[in-house]
Design a protein that fits this description.
single chain; about 400 residues; alpha+beta; five-stranded mixed sheet; 10 helices; elongated; binds zinc ion
């Protein structure tokens, strides 16, 4: 091998190594300690209490709109100020109890804050859907044997049973939201738990997970096992939705726009469900003590390599991010860990010798063949193997220097 080539190779290997290091350092300290999940509980409301809940939602909504109007006029978001001006009016005009009057003010302020953060300007929110925000231990509680919620309403407290099957309610409760959808009542309760976080020192299995299009995901574990999650069905279904969308866009009537929106929502729901299944399989098929290594797709490089048009990048990256979130929270529950690694070169680097070169990979034939050591494999595995290897390097940083020393001759 010519010396010039050799030194060029060494430099590339060096950059690759530094990236691994930088990420290892960040994620060592960036471990979550608590986890909040929203439990969506279906309530079993006795017939006699349904109207009470509906009335409460109506009144609450009207009060929210009243506060919203005041804030929009004055542009004042101080809780103390709004309380001083509107509290008594809310109570007398809407007949709300003191705690609920407070909750109304907090709900509207929170909504304005969200709008100002996201839209950067004053937009007046209107509260259309029937709902009530309930503060834990003030507007709702779970007394005694925890089989019934005690909920504050415009007519005092009522007891509401709920369907508890398959629901885990261990943890600290946050502000819940009572909603009514299609005639059924639900209580969305944020439950925060302290998680016994898996420390890097206790990792016993490392799994590299590469997210792609031909395969939804490919994983490679410490036992050398590769698992593919087939993406063909997903690709087909996506194409189907794309066709539908294109047809409707051409029509361009108000009703076709409505259908377009509905189809978009259906597609998102379905994609979320696919991600749920993939993340479930990954966390269940791997033992406690597993560390998953995924690509950090904040950098666009890896994604643009695979995805050409801008629109497609947006939809795909949304789905990736969703999978990442689902994998992360399922892993935490399972005493597993998810870390992210820089995706640069994951599909061009040799997982055996570290040699990085674009021509290592033959995209058309889906074949990876290392120009340096000759190692060859299906190219969908390679990124997963490299992520696995980067994970090992995070756990044992000293191993890196030795492994990546370019070979002479
Ligand atoms: Zn090699």
């Amino acid at each position: 091998m010519a010396p010039r080539q050799s030194s060029g190779m060494s430099q590339e290997a060096h950059t690759f190594r530094e990236r691994v290091f930088a990420f290892a350092f960040v994620f060592w300290y960036n471990i979550l300690m608590e986890q909040t999940l929203t439990a969506k509980l279906k309530l079993d409301v006795p017939a006699c209490d349904r109207q009470i809940l509906l009335d409460t939602m109506d009144v609450y909504r009207a009060a929210c709109n009243c506060v919203s109007e005041y804030i929009f006029k004055t542009r004042i978001l101080s809780r103390v100020h709004i309380h001083d001006v509107l509290y008594h009016e809310i109570r007398s005009r809407f007949g709300l109890r003191s705690q609920m009057a407070e909750s109304v003010i907090l709900t509207v302020i929170a909504r304005y804050r969200t709008i100002l953060t996201n839209q950067k300007r004053w937009i007046r929110p209107s509260f259309k859907k029937p709902q009530v925000d309930l503060v834990w231990n003030r507007d709702y509680s779970l007394p005694g044997d925890r089989s019934l919620f005690s909920v504050n309403t415009v007519r005092g407290r009522i007891r509401v049973p709920f369907f508890a099957k398959g629901v885990c309610l261990d943890g600290r409760f946050g502000t819940a939201r009572l909603v009514c959808r299609h005639g059924k009542f639900f209580l969305h309760v944020p439950v925060t738990k302290d998680i016994d976080v898996l420390r890097m020192d206790d990792v016993t299995n490392v799994v590299g997970v590469d997210r792609g299009i031909r395969f939804l995901a490919a994983s490679y574990d410490s036992g050398g096992k590769t698992t593919f999650f087939d993406g063909a069905a997903v690709k087909q279904r996506r194409a189907h939705y794309k066709d539908l969308r294109r047809q409707l866009q051409q029509v361009g009537t108000p009703s076709s726009r409505r259908r377009l929106k509905a189809i978009g929502q259906r597609e998102n729901r379905w994609m979320r469900d696919v991600n749920h299944q993939v993340s479930k399989a990954l966390t269940e098929q791997n033992p406690e003590g597993t560390m998953f290594v995924i690509e950090d797709l904040k950098g666009v490089r890896a994604a643009t390599e695979r995805v050409r048009t801008r629109a497609r990048y947006v939809s795909v990256s949304w789905a990736y991010y969703d999978l990442e979130q689902k994998l992360t929270y399922k892993a935490l529950k399972n005493r597993q860990l998810v870390v992210k690694a820089d995706p640069a070169y994951t599909s061009q680097s040799c997982p055996k010798c570290g040699h990085t070169e674009r021509t290592n990979r033959d995209k058309r034939r889906h074949l990876f063949c290392c120009r340096c050591c000759g190692y060859s494999s299906n190219d969908d595995r390679i990124a997963a193997m490299n992520l696995h290897r980067m994970g090992i390097d995070m756990l044992v940083p000293d191993a890196v220097a030795e492994e990546y020393t370019p070979q002479q001759g």
